[in-house]
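Lecture notes, part 5. Sequence design as translation. It can be helpful to think of inverse folding as translation between two languages: the language of shapes and the language of residues. The source text, in structure tokens, appears below.
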């Protein structure tokens, strides 16, 4: 999978911009606050329909405009596909092959991207919310049904929490409606859990291969899905997960009514990373934590390829400067020759003598981009 070209209009600090990408490695070079990350973000938004940096879509629109537009042409094994997203105060409008898409799950997955930014190095020791978001973003790209089930789960969860609050405040007394919401939550929550468990099992396989390589065969990486309900993860079916989630919710009803909140379900789950059987989040060194984060992020490349038959597009936002020489080399070895990569940096010094492919270099200055002759 490749992004052949992109056009942005009234996006962030870009009034208008059109670029094509004939090469596999594309480097955006410039000082901070010039627009490098904005351009990378526009590719992410074209793929995922939302930014990884803000939930306020007004920030994506150029200050003197009411709407922003991003369009691109992607190349797959099956042919080229035009994509387009419009962002305005009326919401988002997406198109595939110039045809408007009514459902998010019909759009996401057309262009698969992996974003690796400095904050992703905090994947291991950061908050559980960060790890849940990681799962949802990556799994949603390769499994549109998961994205639909997740949206339904979040919608029912919101309704259920609102109703629990009304019951706690004595504004409602109908427990039959709570039963209905509980059953719906268990149905969609079970589907979310089942898909996550399958995904983590596959991710662990690819991440461990990379982790062993980076650690020179000295370390084994295991990823455990930490569920808020008791699960036998080795031998379990979708129906059993839904049944267990429903029973757990019913068992915790007294506490939920008192606290006016839903305490169990996928929205409370987490990932545990173990290196040589030891929890790296708690006991690992910073080097082990960074190696784990790098292994997990790079594992997505082969995982997505195994699931879709297409390599994703890789977005590296100023992450090279955060890695030591050895980890930089492992990253470059993993991607070169097979993954189209977009990389932002303030300097080429840390890349000298490490590249085996000729890059396209784009100089970015105050929202203007100029392509340099290849080095």
């Amino acid at each position: 999978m490749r992004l052949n070209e992109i056009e942005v209009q009234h996006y962030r600090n870009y009034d208008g911009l059109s670029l094509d990408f004939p090469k596999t490695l594309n480097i955006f070079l410039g000082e901070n606050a010039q627009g490098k990350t904005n351009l990378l973000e526009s590719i992410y938004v074209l793929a995922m329909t939302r930014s990884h940096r803000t939930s306020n879509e007004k920030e994506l629109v150029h200050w003197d405009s009411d709407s922003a537009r991003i369009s691109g042409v992607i190349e797959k094994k099956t042919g080229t596909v035009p994509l387009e997203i419009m962002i305005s105060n009326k919401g988002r409008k997406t198109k595939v092959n110039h045809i408007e898409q009514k459902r998010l799950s019909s759009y996401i997955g057309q262009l698969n991207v992996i974003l690796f930014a400095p904050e992703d190095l905090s994947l291991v020791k950061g908050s559980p919310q960060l790890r849940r978001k990681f799962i949802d973003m990556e799994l949603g790209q390769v499994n549109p049904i998961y994205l639909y089930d997740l949206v339904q789960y979040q919608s029912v969860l919101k309704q259920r929490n609102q109703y629990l609050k009304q019951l706690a405040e004595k504004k409602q007394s109908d427990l039959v409606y709570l039963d209905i919401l509980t059953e719906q939550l268990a149905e969609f929550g079970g589907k979310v859990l089942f898909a996550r468990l399958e995904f983590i099992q596959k991710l662990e396989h690819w991440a461990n291969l990379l982790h062993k390589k980076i650690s020179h065969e000295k370390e084994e990486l295991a990823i455990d899905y930490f569920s808020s309900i008791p699960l036998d993860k080795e031998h379990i079916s979708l129906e059993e997960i839904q049944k267990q989630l429903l029973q757990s919710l019913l068992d915790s009803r007294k506490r939920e009514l008192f606290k006016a909140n839903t305490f169990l379900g996928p929205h409370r789950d987490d990932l545990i990373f173990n290196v040589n059987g030891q929890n790296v989040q708690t006991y690992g060194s910073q080097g082990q934590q960074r190696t784990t984060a790098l292994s997990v992020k790079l594992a997505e490349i082969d995982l997505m390829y195994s699931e879709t038959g297409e390599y994703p597009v890789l977005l590296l936002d100023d992450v090279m400067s955060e890695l030591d020489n050895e980890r930089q080399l492992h990253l470059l070895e993993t991607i070169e020759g097979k993954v189209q990569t977009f990389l932002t940096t303030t300097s080429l010094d840390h890349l000298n003598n490490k590249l085996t492919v000729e890059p396209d270099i784009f100089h970015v200055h105050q929202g203007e981009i100029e392509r340099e002759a290849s080095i």
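The translated text above is only one of many valid answers, since several sequences can fold into similar shapes. The first helix runs from residue 36 to 48.
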